[in-house]
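Hi R.,

Here's the chain you asked about this morning:
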Amino acid sequence: MVGAAAAGNAGRGAPPEPSGGRQPGAMGGYELVCSDDAPDLAVVDLEAGVVAGVGPGPCGDDDHPKRGGGSGKRAAGNSPAPARQRLVSLDVFRGITVLLMIIADDAGAFIPVMNHSPWDGVTVADFVMPFFLFIVGVALALAYKRVPDKLDATKKAVLRALKLFCLGLVLQGGFFHGVRSLTFGVDLQEIRLMGILQRIAIAYLLTALCEIWLKGDKDVDYGFDLLKRYRYQLFVGAIVAITYMALLYGTYVPDWEYQTSGPGSTEKSFLVKCGVRGDTSPGCNAVGMIDRKILGIQHLYGRPVYARSKQCSIDSPQNGPLPPDAPSWCQAPFDPEGLLSSVMAIVTCLIGLQYGHVIVHFQKHRERIMNWLIPSFSMLVLALIMDFFGMHMNKPLYTLSYTLATAGAAGLLFAGIYTLVDVYGYRRPTAAMEWMGMHALMIYVLIACNILPIFIHGFYWKEPKNNLLKFVGIGA
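And here is the predicted structure, written out as tokens:
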């Protein structure tokens, strides 16, 4: 399941710069930053980033007064103003995504809309991974607002991505054998190489490098100026998307074979007939072929999502026995976080980066919100048009229509949370989400990766079934 909250918390703890940004590479606390040349403001409502009666905005000597701890009312105009105000919407957005991840993990088995789509189409669960990637991009724009030493920032970004990738190998590579299994260890010949944190690490690294090295110096006064200032980053995103499309629809996929172990360790061989180009079905797509060729089929995820499709399960959309006429590819390994699909994950992160630039360069709330809403609606409309004409939204393949739809939805959600929490100050209803967002990596490791349940099952009396859960009355 998706749990890419990790990247948002990596590097937490570095002190903020006096200017209100973070030290390069730090990704913890975020402020309502603005551009260096933004004018001072002293007006209220969506037209300004400050509260009535307070002097200059976030770039001046005074800043937003703290909201009243979730009281639902804006602070009085004569209240003292702190030096900085945290951008709470980042944590709330990430916390909501963490909650969706947990619900999808636990409720997906009996609520179809909370489970991943078996192939084409999207469900609520299919928005979780892109939402994490999106918010990582937003955070990077604030983390690298100023980069005094590009080589040092690059080194730190590479090391952070490596740590994240290695953590993903341990958590999702097969080292742990299940909640109720008290054994661990993995054969390196069969370790799963890709996974959620590995995808996050790749997208994080490429996006961070773009933000460190590919910035223009043009002043930003209007939304169109953002396109000019960050045109090289947009060019990278376009090249990545075009490369993905060319490989997905232009790569020839030949026939291929795989083996599975049946009852009694008997090995069965299956031949998948393809011989096609541009196919996006589960058995003959270029995404799976590239993973099989480069990573090796033994290093892919062994429980493919299409095993719940109507073609492969009589209990679809849940797992079930194979139909009598099931295709030969139904039991073949397929990694939903594979190499080619992770290429498009970079695009999602780059889109989030541009949304973060809006925070950096625009001070008025209305300007920020409008510069988020327009591209968000545009991406959603374009995604629906593409889906209508046959380029379907598909999470396992991470298609372009899926990328645009999920990024557009993420932009709308982020704009809504920003308006509710950072503009109007309603923090009490979202306090739990804020906490979850601030501890996303810990929650992902302990809950989504089952480390906490494994730990609890590891303490028992005489027999494994007599564990701590049974002791407190929950049962083994």
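One quick note: The longest strand covers residues 256-261.

Cheers,
M.
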